[in-house]
Amino acid sequence: MSRICILGAGAWGTALATAFVGQGHAVRIWGRNAETCDEINRQHTNRAYLGEAKLPEDLQATPDMAQAVTGAEIVLFVAPAQSTGAVAASIAAHLAADAVLIACAKGIDNRTGQMQSEVIAAQLPDHAIGVLSGPSFAADVVRGLPTAVTLAMPEQEAAQSLAQNLSGGAVRLYASDDIAGVQIGGSLKNVMAIAVGICRGGGMGASAEAALITRGYAELVRLGVAMGARAETLLGLSGLGDLVLTCSSELSRNFAYGIAVGRGEDVSGLKLAEGVHTVSIANDIADRHGISCPVMQTAGMVLSGAMSAEEARIALMSRPVKAEHPERRE
Ligand SMILES: NC(=O)C1=CN([C@@H]2O[C@H](COP(=O)(O)OP(=O)(O)OC[C@H]3O[C@@H](n4cnc5c(N)ncnc54)[C@H](O)[C@@H]3O)[C@@H](O)[C@H]2O)C=CC1
Ligand SMILES: O=C(CO)COP(=O)(O)O
């Protein structure tokens, strides 16, 4: 049994907390909204994020950061990716010296270009840091449906031991030592899901969606490897696995966001779609590495309003014809 603190009382933080309580861990959620914490404690629901799903009675939530973090052996960062740095800075005074920190948000810091583990390390440099990512809808996990994700730490043995500790019930963790690869896959697949959603919303057909997923995956691998990922990791749960999930289910907020854009609908009231906040920094990083990423670039232009979905379709279809795997011909 471990003492676990979850930072973020949204869909994913609450779902992970539910799974860990079910495994017998002592879990405390920190949420910035006192009313949400009160609802979790008294009504055992988090309706704004998880509808009527029933949460464990012994799951505790608090808006008091000191109370949530003090004494925790494992701390998971589950607020939106762009807020991870601020959350990390705010826990420093309360954190046990040997606490292990796990990044769970999927996104690249759009100010610095840092991955989530780097954002956390910049604020809390003396801690072991890992990453949890993979195909996992909060709505599935909170209902106890089978889910497999990847847990990466810089040392394989440490990853293995933590994956063992946090696996159980319907959640199965696979260990990896490719901390960069696991979070790059999780960040870039959100952008691809928006692109494929735009294609769905624009009524471009199932063949076009399959082509975009495949060519988007080729980009994800090209850029991911240039950024330090191992190609095999990108073929795993946190890469291809999560790409398949989020590019095919309307439960994905990124996919749903893309669909709305493709239909020309108002997106201002939609839920968190991390890809919207990662797309421009991901394109900047691709430019810096000299990596061609037409799907991601076109998605960025549609999201910024520089191009319509129809113009994006024409731009992608009129690119020069080329070898499918140019790197294999050399
Ligand atoms: N929902 C899901 O199925 C999954 C989500 N994730 C990732 O987990 C991260 C969080 O996602 P969700 O929990 O789904 O989002 P959400 O929108 O359901 O919840 C976000 C939570 O963070 C809080 N929050 C927002 N801004 C904040 C800030 N500046 N400081 C502190 N707290 C803040 C909100 O009040 C809310 O409680 C995202 O990066 C997402 O990609 C990963 C796997 C599955
Ligand atoms: O990352 C997720 C599933 O693995 C959740 O996807 P969305 O953020 O697009 O809802």
Automatic annotation (TrEMBL):
Top-rank lineage group of the source organism: Bacteria
Pathway(s) of this molecule: Membrane lipid metabolism; glycerophospholipid metabolism
Entries under InterPro entries matching the protein: 6-PGluconate_DH-like_C_sf, 6PGD_dom2, G3P_DH_NAD-dep, G3P_DH_NAD-dep_C, G3P_DH_NAD-dep_N, NAD(P)-bd_dom_sf
Enzyme class, first EC level, given as a word: oxidoreductase
Residues reported to bind NADPH: 12, 32, 49, 106, 138, 253, 272, 274
Catalytic activity line of the entry: sn-glycerol 3-phosphate + NADP(+) = dihydroxyacetone phosphate + NADPH + H(+); sn-glycerol 3-phosphate + NAD(+) = dihydroxyacetone phosphate + NADH + H(+)
EC number: 1.1.1.94
Binding site for sn-glycerol 3-phosphate: 106, 134, 136, 189, 242, 252-254
Domain Glycerol-3-phosphate dehydrogenase NAD-dependent C-terminal: from-to ranges: 178-312
Active site: 189
Keyword Nucleotide-binding: yes
Glycerol-3-phosphate dehydrogenase NAD-dependent N-terminal domain boundaries: 4-158
Lipid biosynthesis in keyword set: yes
Location(s), subcellular: Cytoplasm
Function of the protein: Catalyzes the reduction of the glycolytic intermediate dihydroxyacetone phosphate (DHAP) to sn-glycerol 3-phosphate (G3P), the key precursor for phospholipid synthesis.
Database matches in NCBIfam families: PRK00094.1-2, PRK00094.1-4
Family stated for the protein in its record: Belongs to the NAD-dependent glycerol-3-phosphate dehydrogenase family.
Record protein name field: Glycerol-3-phosphate dehydrogenase [NAD(P)+]
Organismal lineage: Bacteria, Pseudomonadati, Pseudomonadota, Alphaproteobacteria, Hyphomicrobiales
